[in-house]
Amino acid sequence: MKANALLKPLKLGRYELPNRTFMAPLTRCRADNPKNAANSLMAEYYGQRASAGLIISEGSTVSPQAVGTTNIPGIYTQAQIDGWKLVTEAVHKKNGRIFCQLWHVGRMSHPDFQGGKQPVAPSPINPHDFAFTADGFKETVTPRALSTAEIHDITLDFSKAAENAIRAGFDGVEIHAANGYLFHQFFCNCSNTRTDEYGGSHENKSRFLFETLAAIGSTIGFDRVGVRLNPCFHSFFGITIDKDTIPTFEYIVKRLNGYSNLAYLHLTEPYVPVDNIPYAVKEVAKHFSVIYNGTLIINSGFRSETGHRVIVEGYADAVAFGKPYISNPDLVERIAKNAEWQMWDESTFYTSGPRGYTDYGRIAD
């Protein structure tokens, strides 16, 4: 193989990145303290992976209402800002770059996280799934529909969280508008039956996202903002694909072209085979790269050769690796040396402590 395209430099927003091998956001549940703040163990973990062209942090909740998983970090208190400073300093010390993924789970929360109250969502529709609480997995409940004023308040929460992320030393933020969480719930007919300005048409279903993007961009600069979408997310968290799904995402992606200085668009290939699912798109990067004019990141299921190929063929500018980065902190070096990738231990994904977190070896070890 010629020089792997994953190792080529890339200009992203205001940054010159040394390679196109990105670390995808990965929930790891190590913020196991009363303040849900990042800690020294997390700083070690991210610092180990600083050779990535860009690290996108695990989802960080923008408010107490946004929480839906136990032991995840937030970015809405001073203690959480201080905790994340440990992480960003560790990454920057090794000349790395890191964006903070901003997260609100919407209806995927549970009353255990909400003081006994219902989670919030576009519409009162139970996803009939499970939330990971301090007492283990519990069935989701029917959420409460957000009022218009409350939607505006959440936009402000995201804007403040973005400001907090920059104060914590992050190089930028990613809006988590994928994987069945709050923004995605607004996009889908199966979770949004509103009849006001936030439901019905493509424009209305995406209004919340674009209002939030505008608020964040005006706060920290659009060139420090990325957006993550998952157009073919199906059969998880109560989300299903229908004939309006892809047209909705096409509308969103085309409209993102209006933000010429947006840092990037981050898309995900289908998590499960969609060959037999009507209206689905089998190759997300190939489909949406024709529509999107900016920097495009693709994620899910890639290896060294396929990552190289998707860039060379012009369907993406960078590839974000998830699970491979769990078990290969030196993934960039392994790609450069064509070395074997270590396999991850799935039983340690959402536990506590260093095992399966900071104890994976490097090539030189």
Defining key terms:
29% helix; TIM Barrel; 365 residues; 8-stranded parallel barrel; alpha/beta
Uncertain runs with pLDDT below 50, 5 residues or more?
none
Q: What is the rounded distance between the termini?
A: 26 Å
Helix content: 25-40%
Molecular shape: globular
CATH 2nd-level architecture: Alpha-Beta Barrel
CATH superfamily: Aldolase class I
Number of domains: 1
Please work out how many helical segments DSSP would assign: 11
CATH C-level = Alpha Beta
Give the amount of beta strand, in percent. Answer: 15-25%
The count of strands amounts to 14
| Mean pLDDT value | 97
Strand ordering within the main sheet: 3-4-5-10-11-12-13-14
What profile does the largest beta sheet have?
Answer: 8 strands, parallel, barrel
Order of helices and strands: EEEHEHEEEEEHEHHHEHEHEHEHH
Secondary structure class reads alpha/beta
Q: What is the CATH topology?
A: TIM Barrel
Task: Please provide a written account of the structure.
With 365 residues, the protein is an alpha/beta fold. The chain has one domain (5-348): TIM Barrel, CATH 3.20.20.70. The protein is 29% helix and 16% strand. The protein is built from eleven helices and 14 strands. It has helices spanning 40-48, 78-93, 148-167, 182-187, 202-205, 207-220, 245-256, 284-289, 304-312, 323-327, 331-336, and strands spanning 10-12, 15-17, 21-23, 54-61, 98-103, 120-121, 130-133, 136-139, 144-145, 172-176, 225-229, 264-268, 296-299, 318-321. It has an eight-stranded parallel beta barrel with strand order 3-4-5-10-11-12-13-14, surrounded by five helices. β7 and β8 (136-139) form a beta hairpin. α3 packs parallel to α6. The protein starts with 9 loop residues before the first strand and ends in a 29-residue tail after the last helix. The mean pLDDT is 97.
